[in-house]
Write a sequence for this structure.
């Protein structure tokens, strides 16, 4: 028997369908989704590939951990920025077109700045995992958030730890040669160091030469020759990964053994690939940088999932990259849990009101709270030193895993 | 500035320049005889670098020992490429040859991307981080061996062209195409042989470079450009010019890095190129047409 529809029923159905289609473009129906789609943009290939892949590990473990701790379903939409700002921009556009409710990324300041413009234009929340150029959160953006210290903060923390290293080891280096990678991040750090260092009278050294170098450099012979010729007591280095390897190799070839290599806050020196590529020559390099909190409850939970997903890897080689990436996705998930919607504006408002206690974050720092510019303040650094093939926290003392070694044992006075 | 700093930078520039020169020598030889500009030259060197990396990873074969099988394979590859692909284009307009070799270069880059992915690969030998010391002067072992291989290969090539009958026949083809045909030389075979020999230069340079640099598929176009700069500075078609050009570019880049700014290295070599094009368009050792 067929059931016939009368005129009144037809009109009601039509009105309902009309209302539904009218609401859809505004995201009202979509906003009731039970799952948050997070677009993760990372440089998984190209010159920054190894660090991008390290960050990706933090993203890959996030859905299972966040389901467990927040009860939130996350769907990752991963995109490779190919270590290129233009690709980062187009991938961000595509992720938004494909329905990403929030974006996370992008490790590099230049790439993050490009994605931030897209996120702001399209009104989609973008949570930066790792990128230090201060201008990104100085643009008055409403949809851009960063749980990572700015370059001046990194520099301030890094230089303060440098003073602590010298005090702890009773050393007084009088001179440093400063080498930095000449990209957005490196320039921001160099600017920060140039501004901050003269004001820190507790540091005993002077910078005797400053040498910028190409981030894609395959040969740093000249740069290292110049640095060696400066006769500086130690090398202050702001680097990425590949260039750090090339540079250290060149130091060995040129038999340049300063008191040590200390980074006031940059990637590269503590990465697994650095140790793999250089073996014993990777040891004693110090990086005063953001790190994960080995004592937080969240780190324990993340580490269990990490071991399950990546049984051949060690968290300490990926702690910062994976930790900050995980934290960025957690911020999105936490906001989604509170907002109960994927509506972009509501989600952004919820992110702005984030208040995650220390125990619930993986990275080292205070509670995660955004200031009106979308920046988390109070992220901390630790002095990480490669010792016997693994990066270990040497300072601050409360997180210490090993005692800091400075000068390095192969130091030869110039 | 201390003299030992300058001397060390010059030494490094000369050693690297010799390897650059060998790579460019292949391009110069091919152009000098076949009159075809190999726009896939840097890409071919990248393939040689990957071959060295693969042989090292699979068989622990030192890249300098890998020169033998890689050079043999490249000779065969170069011969086949000229005989099967380029010879039909010899009499066609130059833009057709250009498009053909650019297409070959693109296929090579993307083939490497498919096969190896975009990440950098390298070899790790014991001597790679060592250097010879002569007072305050340091000679990077890897560079010294690479430069020695480059000089040996170049000397072999010079001797082949100077003393062997086949070498003389190839030079005859280069000097007078029609005359060579009239006296009964198999010009197409000799062209293929020349391309094979040019490819051998690339193979030796690639194996030597594998010691000095990490290799990625994107390395090729930059080295094609570098090879062009070198042969134009040295003189397109001049074998000696390629080596001289290589050393000149290697040293001038190093000195520019030392005295101006490291990021100005490439700018300086292109500046040199413009000067040569303005004041000696045939190159430093090239012959006037």
């Amino acid at each position: 028997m067929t059931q016939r529809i009368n005129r009144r029923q037809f009109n009601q159905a039509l009105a309902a369908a009309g209302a539904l289609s009218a609401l859809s473009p505004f995201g009202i129906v979509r906003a009731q989704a039970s799952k948050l789609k997070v677009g993760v943009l990372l440089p998984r290939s190209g010159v920054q590939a190894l660090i991008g892949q390290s960050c990706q590990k933090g993203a890959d473990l996030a859905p299972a951990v966040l389901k467990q701790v927040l009860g939130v379903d996350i769907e990752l939409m991963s995109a490779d920025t190919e270590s290129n700002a233009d690709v980062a921009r187009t991938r961000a556009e595509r992720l938004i077109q494909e329905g990403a409710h929030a974006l996370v990324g992008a490790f590099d300041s230049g790439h993050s700045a490009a994605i931030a413009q897209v996120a702001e234009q399209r009104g989609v929340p973008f949570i930066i995992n790792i990128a230090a150029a201060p201008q990104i959160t100085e643009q008055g953006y409403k949809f851009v958030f960063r749980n990572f210290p700015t370059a001046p903060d990194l520099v301030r923390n890094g230089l303060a730890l440098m003073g602590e290293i010298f005090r702890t080891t009773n050393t007084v280096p009088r001179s440093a040669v400063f080498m930095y990678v000449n990209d957005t991040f490196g320039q921001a750090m160099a600017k920060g160091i140039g501004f901050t260092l003269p004001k820190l009278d507790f540091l005993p050294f002077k910078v005797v030469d400053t040498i910028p170098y190409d981030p894609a450099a395959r040969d740093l012979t000249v740069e290292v020759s110049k640095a060696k010729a400066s006769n500086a007591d130690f090398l202050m280095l702001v680097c990425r990964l590949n260039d750090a390897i090339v540079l250290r190799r060149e130091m060995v070839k040129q038999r340049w053994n300063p008191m040590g290599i200390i980074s006031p806050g940059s990637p590269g020196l503590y990465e697994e690939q650095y140790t793999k590529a250089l073996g014993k020559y990777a040891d004693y390099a110090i990086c005063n940088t953001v790190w994960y909190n080995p004592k937080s409850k969240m780190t324990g939970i993340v580490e269990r999932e990490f071991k399950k997903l990546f049984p051949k890897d060690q968290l300490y080689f990926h702690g910062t990259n994976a930790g900050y990436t995980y934290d960025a996705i957690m911020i999105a998930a936490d906001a989604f849990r509170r907002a109960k919607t994927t509506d972009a504006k509501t989600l952004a408002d919820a992110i702005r009101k984030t208040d995650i206690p220390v125990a619930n974050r993986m990275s080292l720092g205070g509670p995660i709270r955004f200031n009106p510019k979308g920046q988390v303040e109070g992220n901390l650094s630790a002095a990480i030193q490669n010792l016997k093939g693994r990066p270990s926290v040497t300072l601050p003392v409360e997180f210490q895993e090993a005692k800091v070694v400075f000068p390095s044992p192969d130091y030869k006075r110039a | 500035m201390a003299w030992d700093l300058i001397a060390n930078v010059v030494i490094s520039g000369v050693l690297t320049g010799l390897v650059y020169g060998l790579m460019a020598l292949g391009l110069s030889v091919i152009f000098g005889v076949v009159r075809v500009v190999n726009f896939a030259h840097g890409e071919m060197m990248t393939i040689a670098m990957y071959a060295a990396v693969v042989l090292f990873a699979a068989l622990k074969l030192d890249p300098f020992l890998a020169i033998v099988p890689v050079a043999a394979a490249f000779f065969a590859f170069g011969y086949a490429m000229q005989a099967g692909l380029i010879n039909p284009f010899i009499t066609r307009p130059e833009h057709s040859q250009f498009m053909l070799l650019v297409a070959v270069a693109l296929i090579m880059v993307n083939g490497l991307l498919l096969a190896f992915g975009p990440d950098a690969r390298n070899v790790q030998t014991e001597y790679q981080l060592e250097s010879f010391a002569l007072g305050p002067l340091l000679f990077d072992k890897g560079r010294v061996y690479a430069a020695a291989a480059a000089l040996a290969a170049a000397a072999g090539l010079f001797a082949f062209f100077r003393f062997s009958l086949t070498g003389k026949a190839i030079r005859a083809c280069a000097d007078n195409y029609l005359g060579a045909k009239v006296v009964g030389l198999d010009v197409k075979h000799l062209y293929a042989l020349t391309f094979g020999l040019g490819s051998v230069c690339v193979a030796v340079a690639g194996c030597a470079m594998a010691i000095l640099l990490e290799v990625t598929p994107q390395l090729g176009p930059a080295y094609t450009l570098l090879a062009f700069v070198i042969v134009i500075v040295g003189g397109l078609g001049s074998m000696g010019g390629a080596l001289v050009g290589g050393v000149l570019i290697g040293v001038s880049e190093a000195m520019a890095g030392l005295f101006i700014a490291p990021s100005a290295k490439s700018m300086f070599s292109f500046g040199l190129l413009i000067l040569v094009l303005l004041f000696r368009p045939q190159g430093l050792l090239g012959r006037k047409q």
Notes: The first strand of chain B starts at residue 131 and ends at 134. The CA atoms of residues 153 and 268 of chain B lie 28 Å apart.
